Amino acid sequence: KSEDKQNRAAASLIVVSNRLPFVLKREEDGTLTRKASAGGLVTAVAPVVVDNHGIWVGWTGLDDFDEETEVIPESSPDDKAPTAGLRPDQAIPLSVNPKLFDEYYNGCCNETYWPLFHSMPDRAVFNRDHWKAYQDVNDIFAQKTLEAVRSVHEKRMAIPDCSRPDPPIVWIHDYHLMLAANAIRDGCNDEGLQVRMGFFLHIPFPSFDIIRIFPWVDEILMGMLGCDLVGFHIGDYCLNFLDCCQRCLGCRTDKNKMFVEHCGRRVMVRALPIGIPYHKFESLSRIAPRVFPSDMKIILGVDRLDYTKGLVARLKSLERMFKKYPKWIGKAIFIQVAVPSRVDVAEYKELKETIDRLVGHINGEFSTPSWSPIRYIFGSVNQDQLVAFYRDANVGLITPLRDGMNLVAKEFVACQSESDPGVLILSPFAGAGGLMQEALQVNPYETDNVADVVDRALEMSLDERKLRMNQLKKREKRMDVDAWVRSFLSGMDSLLVPSVRPNHD
Ligand code: GDG
């Protein structure tokens, strides 16, 4: 037992992501307090880091953060925040010069990778300075992560008779950090520190024809191959990655066993579809107060305001729907929550203006003295309201042009009642599209068809709604975010089995 306890204390998961799992607030007396960030990743992964005596490495969100400043954690011991219990030494904050950070984050991440990886290359900007900033910031992350690996090894050595044979796990997240792995690996090799490394990409991985447009594509692929396990949401992204490794780098790949061989190492590639904290959404939906009048049919959209989410096409489809099916005038409304996002990037400002105009145009066209077709919220709603929106909507209209997974579709499903559920309409271009097969599928580019499918959803019989939704609910309950974390970690554990261990001949 005591050996178990010691081993657990030496356990080690190091998570590396662009942002730490909390936001910092500067109080009037100059001290910094923290509040857990919203979102599935933090909800699922932070408790594992806490339980595991692990470490989280990330940027603080503050331009003027001084690494020596003390951060005061959540004060109440019974705080329900996922980061409550995360000791200050379990969060390694890093600071980056604001100009460098801007070129890395707004420049390379948001203006290059985001459009390119969503297969919209015309929107992508290729800039040498931004690429240089990306390399530099990834190196800063790598050095901080090395500090974390060192501290884990030191802790293990300080435990008498610590018999944990498994090297610590470094879990790197997302397109912000595709280059960090090799510098971490090299640093560990130099210092004789064992480590297992995994990478998870939260956005799509595009096809060879798209990714080859990026002038420094080989570096990106080699960066990801610095890990032992590379995870994507769905099989298609894995196959694209294998194909690109083979065609850009000439690596041997195996599409059955799903691995890439690179520099004498074998890198596992896995589809690990992310889930949501299903029980949390379901239980909140049971108690949230009603938000809409029950005699009105509600069609709901919830997205960050981003061009990949298909908001303009969606609005045009709704305009078509009200024109083609005037029976819904005065009887149905479309509610769109559009959360401000990347407001420093010019393209996002223009998109907001286009949407503002379109909403005004459609409302002007169809409104009556007591009803308007579109209710548009540019801002976020709190979690209780969001859950009530999901639960009370008759139709969830989720039509991204391209999306890694799309958690909104899953949250909508978790909040539906079993006795009188709504209908999910989903684009096949979201990762969730291929997995949530009982949803009504629509191609967001087919305006007329989207209009027809919305009408069909609003008219769907109770029996069909129940049949579809109850299957969807079952799957999301089983494949929730905890299951996702477990499958990633068990993938990392399978590296300990000699037959799949990366060989170094
Ligand atoms: C990336 C990938 C992938 C939205 N509005 C409000 C609010 N939200 C929350 C939702 C949901 C999250 O934001 C959005 O998640 P998505 O998955 O839809 O989209 P991205 O932000 O683009 O996420 C995506 C994901 O990573 C995970 O791997 O699925 O494909 O692009 O959780 O609930 N939350 C609150 N108020 C709002 O108004 N409280």
From TrEMBL:
It comes from the Eukaryota. The lineage of its organism: Eukaryota, Metazoa, Ecdysozoa, Arthropoda, Crustacea. One of its GO terms (biological process) is trehalose biosynthetic process. GO terms for molecular function: alpha,alpha-trehalose-phosphate synthase (UDP-forming) activity; trehalose-phosphatase activity. It comes from Tigriopus californicus. In the N-terminal section; belongs to the glycosyltransferase 20 family. Residues 69-89 are annotated as: Disordered. This is Uncharacterized protein. Coiled coil: none annotated. One of its GO terms (cellular component) is cytosol.
